[in-house]
Amino acid sequence: MKITTKSRYAIRSIFALVLLGGDERPVTLTQIAEHEDISRKYLEQIFIKLKKSKIVEGSRGAQGGYILAKPANMITLKEVIYAMDGPVSVSDCTNESVCGNFDHCGINWLWSGLKKTVDNYLENITIYDLKRQATGGKDVNLS
Amino acid sequence: MKITTKSRYAIRSIFALVLLGGDERPVTLTQIAEHEDISRKYLEQIFIKLKKSKIVEGSRGAQGGYILAKPANMITLKEVIYAMDGPVSVSDCTNESVCGNFDHCGINWLWSGLKKTVDNYLENITIYDLKRQATGGKDVNLS
DNA sequence: TATAATTACTACAAGGCAGCTAGGATATGG
DNA sequence: CCATATCCTAGCTGCCTTGTAGTAATTATA
């Protein structure tokens, strides 16, 4: 029942991207890697996924880097986590293709209910919310 | 972000226990294993944990088996899952002992909020609720 | 047009852990 | 005493997360 560290890294990274000005000009992975103390090589994989999900845009070459593909308040945590690990899957028994016994199963409503609950929570928090929260205190790091 | 199959098995097993009369007389693991098509050896481990958490009571020897330790409507899913895997941990960053950067972290409120949401969902569903739901349809199996 | 910067892509290795199996110890009703 | 069950401990196995590494492709800039 864990959010993968990949997803947490992704959230932290986007947050750092915003802090470093990524809503205006490209920020390099090296900058983010240093700021968050995450392996740059690992960040590459994360950002490729973020790019595929249209959360960030990459520009290659000198003076390149990544920039937000849309306003921070339009990027939900659910979206980011989805980009990393696919839809939050609370149990394999939420869809017929995997379950086998789906039609006669007496508790799949339970898992889909839980999934809905989690999704709802993650849907209603955006990167902008993180920033707003963080600016309350000084010297803030994520982890 | 998954409920472990151990937890799901546990929930199914207690449900089966109730169906097989485990609120009145001992039901053997062999019965439950057959009913749910789960390895009996695996069930043993699950029920030892359930016993330690005072969810079921075991009686050894011939005519032994397991019986509910309290009414089905007093057994929440949170309790069962806790018995299997410990507290639902959405991220290691919900307590200071593991995180290191806990005090200066800008997003731990996020994970504790998620944990609270999940806990709340699981707290409000009991084994009795499963039974009530299931009796709506006929020929019900869990999975 | 050369060069340095930087993303894009692929492969794979190491470690942890969930999921399961196995064997024997212990208790108990008949 | 024996069949029936729970109780307890160890260990295997395969997958998945977490990374590392190398190389190709692209681009601003001098």
Short note summarizing the structure:
Chain A has 143 residues and is mainly alpha-helical. Chain A contains seven helices and two strands, in the order αααββαααα.
Rg calculated over all Cα atoms of chain A:
17 Å
Fraction in beta strands of chain A: 5-15%
Continuous helix count of chain A: 7
Helix-strand sequence of chain A: HHHEEHHHH
Q: How much helicity do the residues of chain A have?
A: 40-55%
Describe the structure.
The structure is a homodimer of 143-residue chains. In chain A, helix 1 crosses helix 3 and helix 1 packs across helix 4. In chain A, strand 1 and strand 2 form a beta hairpin. A two-stranded antiparallel ribbon of chain A has the order 1-2. Helices cover 51% and strands 6% of the residues of chain A. Chain A is mainly alpha-helical and 143 residues long. Chain A binds chain B through residues 1-4, 8, 11-12, 15, 77, 81, 85, 88-91, 93, 99-102, 104-111, 113-114, 117-118, 121-122, 125, 130, 133-134, 137, 139-143, and chain B through 1-4, 8, 11-12, 15, 77, 81, 85, 88-91, 93, 99-102, 104-111, 113-114, 117-118, 121-122, 125, 130, 133-134, 137, 139-143. Chain A binds a DNA duplex (30 and 30 nucleotides) through helix 3.
Tell me the layout of helices and strands.
The structure is a homodimer of 143-residue chains.
Chain A: H1 5-19, H2 29-36, H3 40-52, E1 56-59, E2 65-68, H4 77-85, H5 96-99, H6 108-123, H7 127-134
Helix pairs in contact in A: 1-2, 1-3, 1-4, 1-7
Chain A binds a DNA duplex (30 and 30 nucleotides) through residues 4-6, 26, 28-30, 39, 41-42, 44-45, 47-48, 51, 58-66.
